Amino acid sequence: MPATIGQLTRFASRHAEPGILVLPNAWNAGSAILMAEAGFEFIATTSAGIAHALGVPEGVLRRDEMVAQVAHIVRAVDVPVTADLEDGYGPRPEDVATTLAAVIEVGVAGANIEDSGVGGDPCLIEAERMCDRIRAARDVIARTDRPFVLNVRTDPYLVRRNSAFAEANFAEAVRRAGAYAAAGADCVFIPGAMDAATVERLAASIDAPLNVLGARGGSESTLTIADFARLGVRRVSIGGSLALAAMGLVRDALASMREGDFIFSQGAPTNAEMDIVMSEFASRSILNGTTLA
């Protein structure tokens, strides 16, 4: 269900309080329900996970398709949801404004927009152009008169992954983070930097709450939530990594079936157990005047 004003205020205030905010990333209503059941006070979405669950690569879904998926997730749970909106779905500031208005309408508590495209050869949007997009988003948020967290992602570490660019990526990430915060970002998200030394330098060099990826598909990072908190990170999310892990489990199960056994089902919840969980959250949605359709 859409978050209450009290929940929205709590989500926004957590970015300014001591300690670290941990966000799991949902890819559909069912995964979001499991996250809420596990006790997470806030949930993010993953654009990659949503796309893969629908059978397409990241970056293919249109604005209306992504907003519809986010709406399903918002309606399924009684905790605030912040939406991954990729590059804002269009090159102009007006496009970003339209996207923000659409997700605010379905009841999200916050949103990410990023400064690179997705697909074959992503590149960084010029910083000033990105600032224009942030200001357009901020104008829409201001007109709602409700708490909202705008988390802006900058991608030097994803666009140039070679370690030879490490210092250049650091400098560019810090430069852009400062510009984005000045333009209206409440939090700055810098994925791709997974080593402790770099994360600590970023946190110390940026005058805004820092969001990093705590997990990434294929990453061998061993940093824990406690490590990120010690390094000065304010917010940690997991992107599409949990959705990818679920896809990996399906692959492994299918390989097991091809070999002639069904051991993948050992330890899995029963239908009855899962129905109880889903029914509880469906009942909450109905009681609060929302539907899952």
From TrEMBL:
A Pfam family per the record: PEP_mutase
Keyword Transcription applies: no
Keywords annotated in UniProt: Lyase, Pyruvate
InterPro entries xrefs: ICL/PEPM, Pyrv/PenolPyrv_kinase-like_dom, Pyrv_kinase-like_dom_sf
GO function term, MF aspect, one: lyase activity
UniProt name for this protein: Isocitrate lyase/phosphoenolpyruvate mutase family protein
